[in-house]
Design a protein that fits this description.
With 361 residues, the chain is an alpha/beta fold. The chain has two domains: 4-244 and 335-360, Aldolase class I (TIM Barrel, Alpha-Beta Barrel), CATH 3.20.20; 247-331, no CATH class. It contains eleven helices and 13 strands. It has helices spanning 27-35, 58-76, 92-101, 137-151, 183-201, 216-224, 234-237, 246-254, 277-283, 309-317, 341-360; strands spanning 4-6, 9-11, 15-17, 39-43, 80-84, 106-109, 129-134, 158-161, 167-168, 207-210, 230-232, 260-264, 270-274. Strands 4-5-6-7-8-10 form a six-stranded parallel β-sheet. It has a three-stranded antiparallel β-sheet with strand order 9-13-12, with no helix packed on it. Strand 5 (80-84), helix 3 (92-101) and strand 6 (106-109) form a beta-alpha-beta unit. Helix 6 (216-224) crosses helix 11. The radius of gyration is 19 Å and the shape is globular. The two termini are 17 Å apart.
């Protein structure tokens, strides 16, 4: 299995653990993945949801906890630690500045086009790499062009998320199950958009697909197509080191193939989650009244939303699935045991090697 090289960073195992917000991937999971040779990722959205002063000091709370989690992850591991920061966050700029000040290795940014991300990087700072998350070749080309022309910054890598991922999806609802938007069909376009830039600037811009990638054989397939590595999230919930509650993990273990459903998020975009009584109640028109003290996500339709998605996801993370729900990828039904991150990574490498050997036989 080839190493994943992003600038001067080298991941022995070419797997990025996808950022899972509202406390699912914090320093516990991220450091374990980094120790095992991959790239561990802390997600910022909702990171301070357990703090007692959240409602009165929302922005500072999130930056405080983000600093703490980065430092914890670095204390546990000398591997690669990335930070996932959604463009849609109302405190996006502050989270980016905190991640850079704490010398995070990589910032992954999606849920919107991170067109201005390089402006936060101090001149001469080569420590923190900037990586946009996109859902199309067009978006990859647009972001790369803007970063180069306005900031003289070439994307350190590109993450391509397909429609089989969990959480909020960067696709129209009618395109989620359209074969034209399968990850296998999106990857060549992104590679084609990036190749001229690699040639022009004589530098590598790794492209890393994610969303529905589950086995080592899947990793081999995409790397054979030209990917430099892969991003995986759903499988890492099924680990002891994942920062979610046991009840949250059990929802993954209990999920059937039909339980991974597409929902209409209060953010105005589709998402993929595990079917729950909470979501059934919402679909039946039983709204969950709430007051929004901080408006954490810019596009959230606060006045018309049937529920607070931040509270629902926080409840689920803590194990209260009656008052919330769990985001998950399409392959959640395949998670059938809880394992250690190291064992998961080893099994993925073994599966990759077996697929490669079989292909070359």
């Amino acid at each position: 299995m080839k190493e994943l090289i992003i600038g001067d960073l080298v991941a022995k195992v070419p797997i990025i653990q996808g950022g899972m917000a509202v406390g699912i991937s914090l320093s516990g999971l991220a450091s374990a993945v980094a120790i095992a040779g991959g790239i561990g990722v802390i997600a910022t959205a909702g990171i301070g949801h357990n703090e007692t002063d959240l409602k009165t000091n929302w922005n500072e709370v999130h930056n405080r906890v983000l600093r703490q989690e980065i430092r914890k992850a670095k204390a546990k591991s000398n591997g690669i630690i990335g930070i996932n920061i959604m463009v849609a966050l109302s405190n996006y700029a502050d989270c980016v500045k905190t991640a850079i000040n704490e010398e995070a290795d990589i910032i992954f940014s999606g849920a919107g086009l991170p067109l201005s991300l390089p402006e936060f990087l101090p001149e001469g700072n080569t420590k923190t790499k900037l990586v946009p998350i996109v859902s199309s070749g067009k978006a990859a080309g647009l972001i790369a062009k803007r970063w180069i022309e306005k900031y003289n910054y070439i994307p350190a890598a590109i993450v391509l998320e397909g429609p089989r991922a969990g959480g909020h999806l960067g696709f129209k609802k009618e395109n989620i199950f359209d074969p034209k938007f399968e990850l296998e069909n999106l990857l060549p376009d992104v590679l084609a958009q990036i190749k001229p830039l690699e040639d022009k600037y004589n530098t590598a811009i790794p492209v890393i697909p994610g969303g529905g990638i589950y086995t080592g054989a899947d990793i081999y397939k995409f790397m054979k197509m030209g990917a430099a590595g892969v991003q995986m999230a759903t499988r890492f919930v099924g680990t002891f080191e994942c920062d979610a509650s046991d009840e949250f993990k059990q929802a993954y273990l209990n999920a059937t193939k039909d339980d991974a459903i597409i929902i209409d998020s209060p953010l105005g975009m589709p998402g993929r989650a595990i079917r729950s009584q909470f979501l059934t109640d919402v679909s039946a028109g039983q709204k969950k009244p709430f007051n929004c003290p901080y408006h954490c996500i810019i596009p959230c339709k606060v006045k018309t939303a049937p529920y607070c998605i931040a509270h629902a996801l926080c409840n689920a993370k803590e194990g209260n699935l009656l008052e919330g729900f769990a985001f998950a990828g399409e392959n959640v039904y395949r998670v059938n045991e809880i394992v250690h991150v190291k064992d998961l990574m080893d099994s993925l490498v073994a599966e990759y090697n077996k697929a490669e050997a079989s292909d070359k036989a």
